[in-house]
């Protein structure tokens, strides 16, 4: 019986069940919505990543488009998923991800899909809900560290 089912599946035409123009991961994971008056992840993701391999290591630095460069040093709002960098129920230094983390053992956001955030007052950890933060955007990555965006003087709103 199982053999007949498998044979039918292999000989029947199969059509992907996803919206036109979306990559497979985008049908499951979508970036956090842009808060009112905030910056979209689509804009931040428009930064080009330039990689270079040296001595078996991959180094990454950004090429920021004009719209992103215009945000440097300005106070912005952005929403995303919190990823703690320390242990503890409250954090003052963490990463905000554009997309929900898909695996606790292998996080793989691109450098234009997260912001390293420092807040003046620690915030409670919640890795499953969309959070919104406001602070000064610092464009970084010239040191080839792979961290393109940082937020300083941040606060949750």
Question: Could you please describe the fold and organization of this structure?
Answer:
- The protein has four helices and seven strands.
- The chain is mainly beta.
- The protein has one domain (29-156): Beta Barrel (OB fold (Dihydrolipoamide Acetyltransferase, E2P)).
- The longest helix has 10 residues, at 2-11.
Our Rg estimate from Cα atoms comes to 19 Å
CATH C-level class: Mainly Beta
Q: How many individual helices?
A: 4
What is the annotated CATH architecture?
Beta Barrel
Oligomeric form of this entry?
single chain
**Unreliable residue runs:** 1-19
Strand residue content? 35-45%
Q: What's the story with the biggest beta sheet?
A: 5 strands, mixed, barrel
Helix and strand string, N-terminal first? Answer: HHHEEHEEEEE
Strand order of the largest sheet: 3-4-5-7-6
Structural class: mainly beta
How many separate domains?
Answer: 1
- Gross morphology: globular
The counted number of beta strands is 7
| Separation, N- and C-terminal Cα atoms | 57 Å
Task: Kindly state the percentage of residues in helix.
Answer: 10-25%
The overall pLDDT average reads: 84
- CATH fold title: OB fold (Dihydrolipoamide Acetyltransferase, E2P)
